[in-house]
Amino acid sequence: MTKKNDEFTPDENEGIVNEELNSEILDDEEQELDTVDSNSEDSHDDEESAIKPSGKVSRKKQDPSFTSLLGDSDGKGIVTKSVEQVIHESMMPYSEYVILDRALPRVEDGLKPVQRRVLYSMLEVGVTPDKPYRKSATIVGTCMGRYHPHGDSSIYQTMVRLAQDFNMGMCLVDGHGNFGSVDGDGAAAMRYTEARLSPISLELLKDIEKNTVTWSFNFDDSRKEPDMLPGRFPNLLVNGATGIAVGLATNIPTHNLSETIDCVTAFIDNPKIKLEQLLKIMPGPDFSTGGYILSNSEFDDVYRKGKGKIIVRAKLNLETGENGKKNIVITEIPFQVNKALMLQRIAKLKELDPTSCLSGIADIVDESDRHGTRAVIKLKKDANAKSIINYLYNKSDLQCNFNVNMVAIAEGKPKQLSLIEIIDYYVKYQRKVVYNRTKFDLDAAEKRKHILDGLLIAIRNIDAVIKIIKTSKSTPEAKQRLIDTFFLSDIQAQAILDMRLARLTNLEVNKLKAELEGLIKLIAELKSILESDKKLMSVVKKELIAIKNAYGIPRRTMIIDPDEESIEEEQPEVIVNENVTAEDVHVVVTENNTIKVVNKRSYGLATKGLSANPTPYEIVKFDLVMSNMKYVYLFTNLGNCHKIKVSDIPMCKLKDKGSIISSFVKNYLPSERVVAIFDFDVNDNDTELIFTTKSGLIKITKESEYISSKQSISAIKLKEDDELVSVYYDNREKTLLIFSHDGLAVNIIKDDVATFGRVSAGVKGMSLNDGDYVVGSVLSGALAYTLFTSNGYGKVIKETEIPLTSRARKGVKVINGKKLDIKLIAVSDLNKNKNYVAILKNSNLVYIESKKLSLENRQGTGKSVVGEKNGAETTKVVPYILES
């Protein structure tokens, strides 16, 4: 190419195939092709035949349209084409394919095609959260064979990323095995790992079978695949996206699910809402690795223009080590930073500049484990910790930029989108999804009503119907006579012929009438939704709020002022705070996993003012009266014991939300929930605790084993998939009652249970059937116990209903087992001051008064305490104290 006027222009002959050179190079090939032609004249009369059985290409007469597509021909089989033609005809389609079908997500469901295909393939093969894990190789093979005809590596890496909690805001795949680490370790080979869909991923796929989305044929037209998933939550914002296309790239940060949904519902309420108002609800990204975001980041550019810079900083603590030396402890790192490389970079910086303040670093040790990140930079005695930290903020990845570029496919083309545009596209899409689903449900309900109308006509005229059927020579004749006699449709007549005689009983007839009445109400409701956009959007909003209540988690990445001190100093073990007056307070843990301290004097009055329609923040899960000068010990389902200084927990009202536990416990994981709280006496060496796990194991350990200088320690050794269910102060004279999900219970004598050490697993307390698990345990001594089942029923049984036995037995049935789908979900000791709240599958809360529960025997069904109007399955029942 020659350069002219600072622009490149093609030479006269550039882009043209050199005829002489090519004729020499292709000389032998021409001879071979001529030979092929001469040998195949007899066997191939048809000029359309282009491929010989041998696989060699034979010549055929080119039509003008074919030649025009290829370029100019010199008559010798040599095609000439300019570079501009090649780029236009080859590069442009390739670029369009990469942009639209490979590298960029859709704004509606926030997924790239390969991600969408992985999730849909997993749904098709049935690896849902309630099913066992399936080998990753099976899932990858299914996806590749059905929808994604590319390398298995790209599919597997996509699935791996969807399972990595350090990359995703909310994981869409539940991985089992080695799926990589924040240190850059790769996942194990797909033949070793297993996976299934995570619970929240079902919200993306929900109602896909109800004509909610459009479909296209796959690569070989053998089956259809969805163009988009229903996407019942704003996945593009929640999980973000990253990808490089041709001439385009996207880099969207993750955001907090609860805040994102609050933004969407605010937009639904006010489509003209200003960006400033949305940023009060969702002030910025929320990264799964935590850390801090500096408030001088370009938030306005990011969310108004779709492009800008976010400054992310690691979370550091200053601890005192051996001989009074300071340690810089890294507990949270910036998003998508490789921790191992970051620490190597810090060590390299020290070597490169030995005269800098980094010379005060003695050693760097990575102490990270399953509890979370903990990298320790050990300092020399005379080192200036603050100077070292500021140096590392400037020179290492302890502080770095996240460059936001919010590009996604919208209306069939890539667009740079603002926050309001993303929400607007999402809301419009959800309106369409819910409309299509409602129309599908309406069609199904009307078809069913049509059949029920025919069945009831037949039942009212059953003698005539039987006579017609008996006197007909054939099924078609019987059908036609039914149609003519009772003015039925073909579908109704066929339903009558298919009806079993058992449907003629009085009970079945009443069921059909009740079903018809329900359908009439449902049809009216569905029609009202389709006819009113306001009602339609209220459905969208209600379902989004249900997802928020079910899956919402507290913000993990805090936004701070750049001049604000973000380094936490380690506090001494002994609590000495001259500004705190010693008093007894209520330490309260709520169902929403928050903790709060309430003044003892006002607690009684506060409980009397609580609502019978509580929020999760008001549901008191645990309440302990203790001194505010001590530590409260929290035992969690993951088998950990954490301690918090009561004086550190802000005093608030009982109705207030309280504080997230992770703000006091650095190693507190998002999946942890509190199962017991205690006020330990450091001078007591005799008191024992009894533990019960989900797999039926029990363990007795001395209280003193858990009094430690560390903030978090392991409380019990748990096997994979096991969880801690309950912890109580033990009394050897009392028995332990254990209840399982299948409705079995044992009342075991603990005489043969020895005292174990802190990290032991214990012994079998209850033998469980396959698939069964422990839902709760209580110590004997209560007057009676309350039981709640998944169908919304509850009852009270006496302790004497459950006979004493030795441990490791299956026990006796304590719920009515006539319906196998009814499960026991909660058990509690009966207390006159204890009422309950049922949490339904649709996230609704139902208040239950204990006085309305009836005393029954083991075989009793119980009493409906949730109410049929609430409909949804009951998933959990928790205590709720209304009176002090």
What can you tell me about this protein's structure?
Helices cover 31% and strands 24% of the residues. With 884 residues, the protein is of the alpha+beta class. The protein folds into 6 domains: 2-81, no CATH class; 112-227, Topoisomerase II, domain 5 (Alpha-Beta Complex); 315-397, Gyrase A, domain 2 (2-Layer Sandwich); 431-550, Topoisomerase, domain 3, CATH 1.10.268.10; 572-679, no CATH class; 682-884, Neuraminidase. The protein has a 5-stranded mixed beta sheet with strand order 16-17-15-14-22, covered by helices on one side. Strands 34, 35, 37, 40 and 41 form a 5-stranded mixed beta sheet that branches. Strand 10 and strand 11 (249-252) form a beta hairpin. Helix 6 (136-146) packs across helix 7 (152-163), helix 15 (419-460) crosses helix 16 and helix 17 (475-486) crosses helix 18 (490-498). The chain starts with a strand and ends with a strand.
